[in-house]
Amino acid sequence: MKKKVKVCHITSVHTRYDVRVFIKECISIAKADYDVTLIVADGLGDEHIFNVNIIDVGKEKGRFSRILRSSNKVYKKAKSINADIYHFHDPELMLYGLMLKSKTRKVVYDIHEDLAKQLEIKPWLNKFLKPIFIKLFKIIEGFVAKKMDGLIVPQPYMKHKYLKYNSNTVLVENFVILDNKNPEIEVDYSTTTAFHAGALTEERGLLNMLEVYSKIKEPNRLILAGNINSKTLNELKNFEEYDNVDYLGLIPFNEVSKYYKTSSIGLILYNNVGQYYLSYAIKLFEYMRNGIPVIMPDFGEWKAFNKENNCGINVDPTNHEEVVKAIEYLNNNPEEKKKLGANGRKSVIGKYNWNLAENRLLNLYQNL
């Protein structure tokens, strides 16, 4: 009997059930008959699920403790696994990725975001030292990228950027997993509820959404689900002043779908900072899969994406009156919502689904 190729995914940042890391990549690789281990640092203990062996090295408190101690812990555990292929997901693991390379071990760096762009908007970086830090990061990342056996990126723009470092750069988009046999879905387009799932920060449009729903009249409602840092949450007084906003906190992945079923509009009101001009956001494809129209930015790639797929309305996220008008227009025209939602669903089934991205991931593994 042929021995299975041993694969070890490593993260010191992401949770064990992270959609991209675990639900899409690890499970897909395990189904393709690889022996898969995922090493995490979330403090929830070891587990074996969906043919993936999850090993937990324990959770550290604080950003810098995580960067220094958790990274070292997951590296040591990964080394002890003695895998054939290592696949890491966090920039703080770059140097450890180099240390894991050998003549018999292949190492893949999964670059989830254009971090050099994102560092420009990180508030914890000293504004005077930030340019130096970003330049240093680019030098280190470029050096590591050249040494890797493969790079994985989620955005077409990023593939062009990283090909200059490594010719084995593969595009594996954050496309959605389709329902079994792609059944028709039922959406109540008469409801006036909008939904936003995902991390909630100012850059990702939290304040834009709250400003919009402080101006819009009921019965228009907004459901928010995701992490908000404690400082921001305290400043917002737990949303007490927003009568038509429901904040659910962080909810399990398998519970998100029920809120899509009770909503008929998806919101993406990112500010034009960092890499948020790029359109391939996970939540965009989730809205489209669920057949609901998307109110999305009018800058960067977003306008061209919507022109191609006709799945929503482009707005200036900082022009709150314009956003209010877009929401009210859709809620007053359920047939338009249905048309845009159907267009989005059709596009996901045809060209933005995980089956297509999964094939590129597995081809990379086979070539290694």
TrEMBL record:
Residues in Glycosyltransferase subfamily 4-like N-terminal domain copies: 29-178
Pfam family, one: Glyco_transf_4
Residue ranges constituting the Glycosyl transferase family domain according to the UniProt record: 193-346
Keyword Transferase: yes
Record SUPFAM superfamilies: UDP-Glycosyltransferase/glycogen phosphorylase (SSF53756)
Keyword annotations from UniProtKB, A to Z: Transferase
Keyword flag Plastid: no
UniProt name for this protein: Glycosyltransferase WbpH
Species this chain originates from: Winogradskyella haliclonae
